[in-house]
Design goal:
By secondary structure, the protein is mainly beta. It has one domain (25-172): Porin (Beta Barrel). It has one helix and ten strands. It has an eight-stranded antiparallel barrel. The radius of gyration is 17 Å and the shape is elongated.
Length: 173
């Protein structure tokens, strides 16, 4: 069954990629445009991404999204919100604010501040994150953005830095 889903996904991406060939001006990342982004990723760093983990019968999940506005061509100011559930009535609210710049219309790099507010916690983690990746525009208004992200903990006495591999899906309006 997994092979069937993988083959279907590859076929859809290949078809949309062929149809998007020739449109390389990427008007979707110009001044005045909007972006809505959903990422897959880890819930460990104040996630505004989607994740699902189950270990020893304990299920942890997160859900969130980010939005951005292009203040000039290729530069978006972004904000994101997320929620994480760790089971046993332990959860967090997550937020993010930052900027993303597209180098040569294809290589997004970003920097942001991410914070987490744990329910009933005395200390909450926060991170400064830097990321870089590639924007594969499968249509003129939809991109898949695999990226590498490094989160520097602002609470190093209690929380560690983290390296992540994420896959983002962005709709450009």
């Amino acid at each position: 069954m997994k092979k069937l889903f993988l083959c279907a996904a590859v076929a859809v991406f290949a078809f949309t990629s062929v149809n998007a060939q020739g449109d390389d001006d990427h008007g979707a990342i110009q001044e005045g445009k909007w972006q809505i982004e959903i990422n897959t990723g880890s819930w460990t760093t104040g996630s505004t991404a989607f994740s699902l983990t189950s270990v020893d019968g304990e299920t942890m999940w997160s859900a969130g999204a980010e939005g951005g506005y292009f203040v000039i061509d290729n530069l978006a100011i972004k904000a994101g919100l997320g929620y994480s559930d760790f089971g046993d009535d332990f959860s967090s609210f997550n937020y993010k604010i930052g900027a993303k710049y597209y180098i040569a219309n294809e290589f997004p790099v970003g920097v942001d501040f991410t914070g987490t507010s744990f329910k009933d916690a005395d200390e909450n983690p926060s991170y400064v994150g830097v990321e870089g990746g590639y924007a594969w525009f499968i249509t003129p208004k939809v991109s898949i953005e695999p990226k590498l992200r490094y989160n520097v903990s602002m609470n190093s006495d209690f929380y560690d830095d983290a390296l992540q591999f994420l896959i983002g899906f962005a709709v450009h309006l």
